[in-house]
Structures are given as C-alpha cells and as structure tokens.
Design goal:
17% strand; Rna Polymerase Sigma Factor, Chain: A; 52% helix; alpha+beta
Length: 283
C-alpha cells in the first residue's frame, strides 16, 4: 500500500475525530489536510503503526486549533452550535459504532470540556484508543490520562439526556411537527413538546434566532408559530433529512439550505431542539 493509499484508508476516521473535536466541517477538513501534509513530509521508515501516527497527529492539530477557537467562541452572538452535517448518506466514519456520538446534542455538551479533556474522552470512549497512545498525544502519564477521561465522562453523563428513541419514532414526531406547523395548530405543537422542553437556536447574529434558549412547551409553541410566518414561504420546503447521523429536519429555499433542526426525544415527546440558522454554517 502506498503512503497516499494508507492515508486515504484512514481519512474518514481522521475527519470524524477532527469534526467531533472542532464542530466545524471546514476546520476539520483543514486539520485532515494538514495531517496529510505532515504524513508525506515525515520519515515513515520507523513508523510501525500508521493509523496510530495519523490519529496522534490529527489529535494534536485539533487540540491546538480548538484552543484558538475557544477565544472566538466566547464572543459569539447567542448560543454556539456545531456546523451540521446534512446528508442522505451515512456519516463519513460510519464504522465508528456510536452514532449518537456525532449528534448535535452530544457535540454541544463536548463544548464544555477543555481541549485536552475533549481529545482524551473522544479518543478513549468513541475511537477506542488506549491510554498509552492518549498519553503520547497529551504528553501526560497514563494515570493522569485515566483521570482526565474519568472526569470528562462524569461531566458528560451529568449533562447528557439518554433516550432509546428509534429513528422511526423521530421521523414520526418530526412529521407531526411539520403537519402542526403547516396547520398553525398550537394545540398540536404543545402536545409534541415535553413541558420542560428547550429550544436552542444558533443564528450567530446573522439570522433570526434568540440569544438564549427558550424553555417550556408554551413558549416554544408560540416561538415556532412566529417563526413559521417569518421563514416559511411557498418557495421553501421543509423535509426529513439526516443531520449528524440522526433523523432531523432541513428547510431549503431551492438548492439553498436555510436551517436544520435536530431533536432529543424519548420517542413520545420532544425534549430538546437544536436549530442552526447561521448562514455561515449552512453553505
């Protein structure tokens, strides 16, 4: 296998790691490209495990990039959400077995971790990398890395809502949502959302979105009906799509993507909504 073939066989896995680290397709692609350049410039003779070398290089590059991005995101207007991956195809690293670990809800929780915590947790719990390799990535002892992963795992478990809703249940709920929206049926919308549901929208100051999450079914129903009058028109189509490996909604104006919507649900009611309307994230 040539050096290019070796890299290409790992590209999907590297992109999946970089995207989960950074929450941005463009930044992830930049990191993968930089790892590609370093791979071709490296002396590969002593490299016994190319995959491990590439994961290490990508992780370090992503940590450095995330440190810089953290400062930018502190000044972001309103809630910051990851750039959605919209597709009718499986995500680029589908062989990684935890599809929920690509979701908008999960990546939003990861934003609360420091860059090294995020890298250690993802490498161990999502990409099944051993502590010896993680120690090499972070420049720490294995024992210290175990503590980092343990703390990160505890923080994530405390914030993460885990439901076993099927994709078909999500599809059914989203179909009911679009039908209620089309009918302007506030009662039907209220029935769809859990009483304590949250609606988080990322407009980045460039599109119609609140600067704080909306909490409660009543306020969400009123918000949604108001947004319908502003965003829905004869030329725009709302459709079921794959958003970050899960069933979600897309709003399109012809070929142009206007918004994406991802949900967290127990299969009966919608517990949380993550809507991305920032045009910079929907190119």
């Amino acid at each position: 296998m040539t050096s290019t073939e070796t890299f290409e066989s790992n590209r999907g896995r590297l992109f999946g790691l970089a995207y989960r680290m950074l929450g941005s397709r463009a930044d992830a692609e930049d990191i993968v490209q930089e790892a590609y350049m370093r791979w071709h410039e490296a002396n590969r003779d002593p490299i016994q495990n190319p995959e491990a070398w590439l994961i290490t290089a990508t992780s370090r590059l992503a940590i450095d990039r995330l440190r810089r991005l953290k400062t930018e995101r502190e000044g972001y207007v309103g809630p910051w959400l990851p750039e959605p991956l919209v597709s009718h195809e499986p995500p680029p690293d589908q062989h990684v077995d935890l599809a929920a670990d690509l979701s908008i809800a999960f990546l939003t929780i990861l934003e609360r971790l420091a860059p090294e915590e995020r890298a250690a947790f993802l490498l161990h719990d999502v990409f099944d990398v051993g502590y010896e390799r993680i120690a090499s990535v972070l420049g720490r002892t294995e024992a210290a890395c175990r503590q980092v992963v343990h703390r990160a795992r505890d923080r994530i478990r405390g914030d993460r809502k885990r439901f076993n809703a099927t994709e078909s249940a999500k599809t059914h709920l989203l179909q009911k949502f679009t039908a209620a929206l089309d009918a302007r049926d506030e009662r039907a919308l209220l029935d769809l959302f859990a009483p304590e549901a949250t609606w988080t929208a990322d407009g980045g100051g460039k599109a119609g979105a609140g600067v704080r999450p909306v909490v409660g079914a009543d306020d969400i129903a009123r918000l949604v009906l108001g947004l319908r009058e502003r965003f829905i028109s004869a030329n725009r189509v709302m459709e079921i799509a794959t958003v970050n490996g899960e069933t979600g909604l897309c709003l399109r104006d012809g070929d142009r993507l206007i918004a994406t919507m991802s949900i967290v649900t127990d299969g009966e009611r919608i517990q949380a909504v993550y809507a991305v309307v920032n045009p910079d994230k929907l190119g």
